[in-house]
Structures are given as C-alpha cells and as structure tokens.
C-alpha cells in the first residue's frame, strides 16, 4: 500500500459544552496543523499516489472554510462540540466529497483510503481514517 | 476509525544482556518520549475518543512507576531485557488494565485498540499496538 | 553563556484590528507552543541554570492567566493587538517579575537574560528576548 | 504487533516527465529523510524486533546506491519517474531482499511487514508498506 | 529584541568542486527547509515585527529563482560551491535588498537584522545572520 | 556571521545530589540529542564553515567517551552533578580542544565560536556557548 501526505494548518476559535471539558468550556482557540494521507494499492501512470498540487490546493480550500473563524458561529457546527477528533472527520469527509467529484483529478479515482490528523499542540493530536 | 494521541516522557537507566547489544550491555540510560494513541470506531456523546485529561493523568501515573529509576533494580523486570519495544508493550498493557477498571472513565469502554510509541532518539523508536 | 529552555503551551482566542491582518481580523484562535530560555554566565552551586521544576511551574502559572481564554475580553489587553510577538513579550515580562520576587528560587538571581518563543504553527513563530 | 523504526537520509538529483509535474520537470533535487519500520507479532529471544545495528547498516547501504547521485543517470531508473512514493517502494523492496538473504540476521526471519517513509520536506512525505 | 520567523522550502540540484566534498562532488540535490527571522528592537504600530503576509510572499519569490533548478547551470553561481551556508547568505542578501526597496512594506524599515537558516536534513543545517 | 550545525546523540545513566533534584537523585538516565553549531564571520575557500565530515566524526568521538555509560562511575565526573547544562559545556570544551589541535582540519582555525545544545526531552534542553 502506498500513501502520500501533505501538511497545512488552520487557526480557529471555539468553545465546548460539557463538564468533561473543564476550562475548555470557555471560548478559546487552536492552531491545527493538518496532515492528510491519501492511500492506494498501486501508483498511477505517472508513478504518483495523487497530484500533490491539486491535493494541496483542495486541502487549503477545505480548511479556508474554517480558518480564521469562530466555529461556534458556523451554522454547520451549531450545537456540536468541535473537538479535534470531530474536526479531523469533517476535513476527511469534505476531501472525500471532492475526490468523488473529480477535484483532485481523474487519477484520484484510484484512491482507496484517507487519513486526516489534526495536531493541536506538541503533546496532543487526533486522527480520523476512512475508506473512499 | 478515530484515534487520539497524548505525549509524555520518562528518563530511565538500564543495561542489556546479550552480545547483540554491544556497548549497550553497559549500564546506560534513555529518555523515552511516549506517545499513546487510543482508537475507537465512533466518538462518544461529547464527540471525544477519550477524556484527554484522564488519559494524560493515567499515562503520567503509569510512567511514574518507571521514571527516574534504574530498571535493572525493578523486580518487575528482573532478568528481562528492557528494550524499547518491550517497554512499549509494558506501557500499553498497564494502560489497558486501567481502561478495563474504569480509570479513564466510563466512556473509555468504547475504545477498541491502543498503540504506544517510545522514541529513544531522533533516529530510533518502537511501537506496540494491541486490541482492548 | 549557559541557557536552559522549558516548553509548555496555551490555547487562546483573539482577533486583530487593522487591514494588514486580513482575515485574521475575524475572531479566531491559536495554539502557542511556548519555549522559555533562561541565560546566565556561570552555573549555580548545583550545576544548574535554574531550578527546572520551579521554572516549569511558574511558566504554567503565567500561561494559565491566558490559557483557554478569549484575549479580546481580557482587561489587560483592551485595545491591543495581541500578536504573537507581543504575547512573547508579555510572557517574558511576567516571568521576569516572578524572577525578581524570588518565585524561581534564590539561585535565579544569577540569571541575566530571558528569551520567550511562541510557535503559532509549523511555519511561523516569534521571539522576545530581554535582560533581567 | 510490534514495530521498530530507524531513520537515515539521502540527497539526490532527478527530473520528472509529464505535465502534471510542472516546474519539477526541470532537473532539481531532494533530501529524503528515510524512516524504515520493521513489524513482527512477537519479539525475539533478546526482546527485540530486529538487530538495530544491522538494520541501520543495511539501510545505509541501500541508500548509498542512490545517495549523492543524479537518479536520471542510473540504469535502474531509466525512463522512470522517480517520485517519492516510487522511491519508498524501491527502498522497501531492496531491504526485503536483504532480509530474505539473512543480511539483518537470523532473527529477522520473524519479521512480517515493512514500511518505508520518505520525507521530502516539512510539508510532504510518502510511505510504502508491504508484507515480507 | 523581537523577532518573527517564517518557514518555506526549495528543492535544488547541484555539485561541489574540491576533494573535501567527497561523494558530494557528484551531481546530487537537496531539499532546503528555509527559516527566515526578522529582528527589530520595537514593534510597529500594529504590534508586529513585519507584515507576515508580505514576508512569506517575498521569501517564496526569492526561493522561486532557485527552486526546482540545477544550481550548476545558474549564471549567478558559475564557478561557485553552492554550499548550504553560502546559499543561506544568498537568501538573506536578496531579502535584504527587497526590504531596502520597500517590498516588505514601509514598516519593514524598522528591521535591524536578518537570520536565514537552511536545513538540509534532520542532522545538519546552516545559518547566516546579518545587519540591515 | 555564518554557522553550521550537526546533530548526534548519546544515551547515559547518572544520578544527582541535592534536594533540588527531587526524584532525579535516584539513578536514572537520559538520551541527549546533541546539536553543535560552529560560527565564523567569513566562509573558507571552499565556501564552508567547517568540514562537515570531520566535524561529525569528532563529535561522535567526543560523545563516545560518555555514550552507553553511567556517568556516576566516570572519574572525570567524580563528585559532580552532570546536569544537562554542565554536559553541554563538557562537549563544547572537548570539541574546542580538538579544534585547537587541528582535528577538524586547518580551515577550522577560522572558527570563532561554538554552541552546544543537549536536548533531554521534547520539553527541555540546555545550551552552552563559548568563544574559541
């Protein structure tokens, strides 16, 4: 199995509801360093997993819908705890939609799996992995 | 599949028995930067993999039984080569016990798998992964 | 010259005023991984730059006044752009006050200089360095 | 499952053929920081995944056949796009051959899987994983 | 003293002349992860060291003149060993020219010093630091 | 000013004397990832700060006198707290001696300064910087 990973980041504000979150119930924020891995069993005709230019572009575009925002004010996340693990799934699902509609090029139809890691600090990160 | 990872570290002394270890047969030591990943297929009601506060606390507690010690003098490791890979399994198994007894909270019953990585330097690390 | 550095982090929300900030004028947030370096020309009687336990504790305490908060609501920062470089100076100045009042132990009187780095992502960070 | 990872690097020149590569069609180069992970379900009699000395030595030897070279001039890669993902497979396959012929010691016969990651920058890397 | 650092990278081919370079006399290549630090004693009216958007843009533009190229073919470097340390100075000097001509904005006139680090691998890097 | 940095590591056991060290008074150990920076105002005739091959070799040799040892048993350190900051100075001073006696080549006579950083974990490190 082959994979290719690209990295970008976003900077957001949010708050959590539930006693388990302690002081994180207050409005605060995070930088998420985002790593997206694309998996496929065989390389394409150019010896690539995916067009890295298109992959980086689409990742930046997906993140731009959340970047420099207060997620508490985003209708998509109303009433939702936007935890690191949940946001990893949001990024993965939105990229999966774009792969399906061809935004990463026709070669991307050979992709089988996607893993998205959001690093929230030097001591904590979360990953969501799904099939395509 | 979702995962959440937390990082901590421990500083230990030990020696190895067997010619394969070369100069590491002498008493020496290591800093192990320890990454523990918790896996589950669905998030809990708070949108979490695990209570990160409890997970970090329990990890620190597991490490404290080895931290600032000479492992050659620990009864648990008598006659054992405390290699990086073996210590990764020790940390994983001890955390698995705590998950079973509820120390990471009731939500942790949804966890399926655990992976523990011990980084011994910038050029070598070992991982042990197990089901719960 | 000797230095010792300790690392911690904080997660804050804030917004900026001024066109130069572009989309960062919206309420957003950041994880700051914070490195504090303490400098002195000679080590103390224990061969240390500073008591690393006290230094880490005081750093955590200084950060806790900002951690998990919206800096736009903090009276200390009213009408101020809480840029990464400005916050580095805030952390340094508050630690300098604590050194002066003895919170890092009597040995800390030998410290000459302080440098604080705030890493806001994998591609940007800021440092403020000052004498004591 | 246990794994042990060792890190080394190589510095190569190459060019790509195909419009998808844009400016990378020109002769350029890369530092690949190479991480090789060896997997096995049980440790050997010394509590090891693999003899780390032999593993590091064989990795260095495999890389030396490409290190400080222009891959466009290597007969092995004639007419081939030496992408990061493709080179990860080359390193993995060459190490697998050496494991089979005993170069990593008799204990290495217990290895089941191999994963090779080539990091080409702080924002992009590729992995190839295969059974043994 | 304040500083702000931004990171980017370039991927080049080159060769060296002189026995001291050993196998690096052959045509090979490198990824340089490039960190540029801008220094000034006081922040500007926006509480900034420099407009980070302009700084990143100008850095990318300076690197693009070398990125994806064989430096042996560049007239600017004819007969020159393009060592990591020498290239750090090239990047610094070219950025200094742009600061002087206003490409980083009028606020950049308050900058006093520049440091450029080129990381060629996980075990080697070089820095050039100069006044403005 | 130019600098070149090379990285290596050592793994040692030791204990400390003095209440300030708390649990570190017990025999324990550390991996020190060691970064050595060589400084000079002008490059040599090959456009280098120092012969990186010789520098890496001499660093490895200096570390080998401590690597895989219990520093409490080394006559050089009898009655001494081998703190991270103190060991940084030991490495720097021993390298300075070798520079003086020509072990890093005749070009190394142009070096002016040396900085040695020992990283003991992902959250703590120490540096010693001295003139040559």
What does this structure look like?
Chain A starts with a strand and ends with a strand. The first copy, chain A, is of the alpha+beta class and 132 residues long. Chain A is 23% helix and 34% strand. Chain A is elongated and about 50 Å long. The model of chain A has no long low-confidence stretch (mean pLDDT 97). Chain A has a five-stranded mixed beta sheet. The longest helix of chain A has 17 residues. Chain A contains two helices and five strands, in the order ββαβαββ. At the A-D interface, strand 1 of A face helix 2 and strand 5 of D. Strand 5 of chain B pairs antiparallel with strand 1 of chain D, so a sheet runs across the interface.
What structural keywords apply?
132 residues, five-stranded mixed beta sheet, 2 helices, 34% strand, 5 strands, homohexamer
> What's the number of helices of chain A?
2
Average pLDDT rating of chain A: 97
Q: Give me the strand/helix succession of chain A.
A: EEHEHEE
- Most extensive chain interface and residues per partner: A-C, 25 and 25 residues
**How many strands of chain A?**
5
β-strand percent of chain A reads 25-35%
Oligomer: homohexamer
With strands numbered from the N-terminus, the spatial order across the biggest sheet of chain A is: 3-1-2-4-5
Q: How helical, in percent, are the residues of chain A?
A: 10-25%
Radius of gyration over C-alpha positions of chain A, nearest whole angstrom: 16 Å
Secondary structural class of chain A: alpha+beta
Query: Which spans of chain A have pLDDT < 50 for at least 5 consecutive residues?
Result: none
The major β-sheet of chain A equals: 5 strands, mixed
Distance between the termini of chain A: 15 Å
């Amino acid at each position: 199995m082959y994979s290719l990973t690209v990295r970008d980041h976003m900077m957001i504000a949010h708050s959590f509801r539930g006693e388990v979150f302690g002081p994180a119930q207050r409005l605060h924020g995070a930088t998420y360093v985002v790593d997206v891995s694309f998996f496929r069993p065989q390389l394409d005709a150019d010896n690539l997993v995916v067009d890295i230019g298109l992959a980086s572009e689409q990742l930046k575009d997906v993140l731009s819908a959340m970047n420099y925002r207060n997620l508490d004010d985003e209708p998509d996340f109303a009433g939702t705890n936007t935890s690191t693990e949940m946001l990893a799934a949001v990024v993965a699902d939105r990229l999966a939609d774009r792969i399906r509609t061809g935004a990463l090029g026709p070669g991307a139809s050979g992709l089988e799996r996607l893993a998205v890691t959001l690093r929230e600090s030097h001591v904590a990160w979360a990953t969501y992995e799904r099939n395509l």
